[in-house]
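Dear H.,

Thanks for agreeing to be a second pair of eyes. The structure we're designing against is below in token form, covering all 344 positions.
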């Protein structure tokens, strides 16, 4: 089954294969402006992957893209999401509720969805406690004072119809995609491997220019950075494939990007460990001595939310160094203190 492009002027569409298209959908976020949704066509209808944020501009863009491809929302048979973040999942919830389309998500996402539904009015409840442990009590207070932005209020969010597990095969009609569990960015993040097409829909697990944050979860697993690194190694074990990420260009391959990200995190682990050896003892102290983003900004030059993610990224690296036996961690008046182990 192949697409017929009824309107060649639709610049949001990219042909990936005869039956696969990428749709660039707008986001209401100040820092992240586009999410890539993917459409798989088959004789029985369409499969949507990561259909984006539930707001009018994005929904209109997706409807227009489907029309350009010769379809309507009534042709969508199933929606699958790589993870539960709103820019990937919330329009799927809305269309499931509105049109009865089957919605699927990784089973590990149940924890953060349930945690959100228990405290829907608090923006970053888990992160506040972790910031206090990181020695960033003032930042924790600032994060606790944040409210939802207008575009974040009332976003559709609920359990899917079907929970997906590692190795599940989803019949998409003329092809099938295999679920690969890739925890890290979120606890239940999954990617979809299409061996027939030679592609992997990588969600936020592999992105072409940045490494995904592991600081936004409501109910993360134990040592999420270790999980993320293990999930990167999985990409080296699978056949090399064209990388179809949720953000950014689609031209890279999975193995080369996974290798780059593994090097990045091992470099960051050494950097963080060296700062502990040089006298820093908390995540906040380490983060304050580092530079951030490609613009090499100091911690204080970042906005509040990016300051939070920077400190908690350092915390995840310190936790992993402790788990590897390279650092010793203690809790002192509610703040985690780190030092080199005697053998290091």
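And this is the sequence the design step returned. I haven't edited it by hand at all.
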């Amino acid at each position: 089954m192949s697409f017929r492009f009824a309107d060649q002027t639709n610049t949001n569409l990219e042909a990936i294969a005869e039956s696969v298209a990428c749709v660039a959908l707008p986001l209401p976020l100040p820092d992240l402006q586009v999410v890539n949704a993917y459409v798989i066509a088959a004789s029985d209808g369409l499969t949507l992957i990561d259909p984006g944020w539930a707001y009018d501009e994005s929904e209109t863009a997706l409807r227009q893209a489907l029309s350009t491809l010769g379809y309507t929302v009534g042709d969508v048979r199933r929606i699958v999401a790589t993870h539960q973040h709103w820019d990937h999942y919330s329009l799927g919830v809305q269309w499931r509720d509105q049109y009865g389309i089957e919605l699927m998500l990784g089973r590990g996402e149940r924890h953060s969805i349930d945690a959100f539904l228990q405290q829907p009015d608090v923006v970053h409840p888990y992160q506040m406690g972790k910031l206090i442990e990181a020695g960033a009590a003032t930042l924790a207070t600032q994060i606790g004072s944040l409210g939802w932005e207008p575009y974040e209020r009332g976003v559709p969010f609920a359990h899917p119809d079907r929970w997906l597990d590692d190795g599940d095969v989803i019949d998409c009609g003329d092809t099938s995609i295999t679920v690969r569990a890739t925890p890290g960015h979120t606890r239940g993040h999954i990617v979809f491997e299409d061996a027939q097409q030679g592609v992997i829909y990588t969600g936020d697990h592999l992105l072409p220019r940045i490494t995904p944050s592991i600081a936004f979860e409501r109910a993360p697993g134990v040592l999420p950075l270790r999980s993320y690194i293990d999930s990167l190694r999985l990409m080296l074990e699978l056949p090399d494939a064209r990388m179809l990420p949720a953000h950014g260009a689609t031209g890279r391959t999975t193995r080369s990007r996974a290798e780059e990200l593994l090097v990045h995190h091992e470099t960051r682990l050494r950097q963080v460990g060296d700062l502990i050896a040089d006298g820093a003892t908390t995540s906040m102290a380490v983060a304050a001595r580092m530079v951030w983003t490609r613009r090499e900004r100091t911690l204080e030059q970042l906005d509040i939310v990016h300051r939070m993610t920077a400190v908690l990224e350092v915390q995840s690296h310190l936790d992993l160094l402790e788990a590897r036996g390279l650092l010793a961690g203690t809790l002192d008046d509610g703040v985690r203190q780190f030092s080199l182990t005697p053998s290091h």
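Two observations from my side: The first strand starts at residue 13 and ends at 17. The two ends are 60 Å apart (CA to CA).

Warmly,
E.
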